[in-house]
Amino acid sequence: MNNNTKKRVRKSKLHNKHTENTVNNENSDDIKEDVKKKKEEKIVVKPQVQAGVDKMLAKGRRYFGSSGASLTHETHGDGESGFGHKVVDIGLTGERKTTEMLKYWIKDKKNVALVDSVHLKAKNKGDSKEVSDGKDTDHVLIMGNTVVIIDTKAWRKNYNYKISEKGRVLRGKRNFKGGVIGATGAIYIWRSFFPEADRIFAYVCIQAEGASVAYNAEWKKSPYKLVAKDKLFESLDWAYDKAGGKDVELNSEVLAKVIVSAVKPRDRLAEVLNDNRLSL
Questions:
Q1: Beta-bridge partners for 149
Q2: How far apart are CA 131 and CA 259, in angstroms?
Q3: DSSP string, 167-185
Q4: Where are the alpha helices (DSSP H) in the chain?
Q5: How far from the centroid of its chain's Cα atoms is residue 244's Cα?
Q6: Residue 248: which residues within 8 A CB-CB, separation 6 or more?
Q7: What is the 3-state secondary structure (H, E, C) of 182-201?
Q8: Is 50 exposed, middle or buried (0-12, 13-18, 19+ CB in 10 A)?
Q9: CA quadruple 271, 85, 174, 150: dihedral positive or negative?
Q10: Which of 88, 181, 221, 243 could form a disulfide with 74 if both were Cys (CB 3.0 to 4.6 A apart)?
Q11: Listed residue (67, 22, 91, 59) closest to 265, CA to CA
Q12: Cα–Cα nearest to 258, from 140, 170, 157
């Protein structure tokens, strides 16, 4: 068996475990039905903005947004999460590590773009309650006409993580704070905003050294896929193949909608300079 054959065998083993985690598959019928009932949400992209995105793509730009932008609003103690500065800093570092990995992965893929820190929110049909993707979606990849959403989790290193029968992520055999994942709701909200996308893939990436994931029955049934950082590229290669690989053209209209929904990082200096108390 030559080296190329060995690589294909290893890759196929991961793919056999990797059920399609989109709202179009049999594992996500509940999400699919909810989306059918829900009114499609709209993101308005001005013509000049679309033209600007097309121009940047033509020049070879593939990265947009700001890694960890939402967390920059937490670092000064004004955020709503209630997390301390240390936890926020760990999360920010984790997101930026994943961003660097994703930048590397898209280098040789001209039909893939990355947008960091995107926030979508909408109102339930017939209800004033807002539905959102949480604080934000950490990373978004547009592969042709497929959208891949990724949430980074800077959890403890050297642990095995698995999805329980109740849908929580366990650290070893125990529940832990942060083990409730909002990715299923995120898939729902992304589909409502992007009905034109062929599929929505969702990953939760554990950005921790020595972390591993149990590929149990719950993992296979889950609408999102929990992956350790050292398996992220293999998972994205699988998603890229499903999206059509190099044979599909990047949908710049979908990309523009994602870009205009990106969160701006907090500019503390501008806030100080604009403070009315500084006015003479």
A1: 140, 202
A2: 20
A3: S-EEETTB--TT----HHH
A4: 3-17, 29-37, 47-58, 69-72, 85-106, 183-193, 217-221, 232-243, 252-259, 268-273
A5: 19
A6: 111, 143, 144, 145
A7: CHHHHHHHHHHHCCCCCEEE
A8: middle
A9: positive
A10: 88
A11: 67
A12: 140
Degrees to nearest 5, angle at CA 78 with 77 and 83: 50
Taking the CA atoms of residue 75, residue 80, residue 82 and residue 88 in that order, the dihedral angle to the nearest 10 degrees is: -30
Amino acid at site 186: A
Of 264 and 278, which is predicted with more confidence? Answer: 264
Specify the pTM: 0.81
At which residue do the structure tokens 């009114």 appear?
39
Buried b (16+ CB within 10 A) or exposed e, 189-225: bbbbbbeebbbbbbbbbbbbeebebebeebbeebbbb
Q: Which of 12-26, 76-90, 121-135, 210-224 has the highest mean pLDDT?
A: 210-224
Dist CA 258 CA 142 (whole Å): 9
Which amino acid is residue 257, in one-letter code?
A: K
Closest to 44 (Cα-Cα) out of 186, 198, 256: 256
* Segment 226-248 mean pLDDT: 97
More confident of the two residues 71 and 101: 101
CB 85 within 8 A of CB 277: no
Q: Say how many residues make up the chain.
A: 280
Judged on CB neighbours under 10 Å (0-12, 13-18, 19+), 22 is: buried
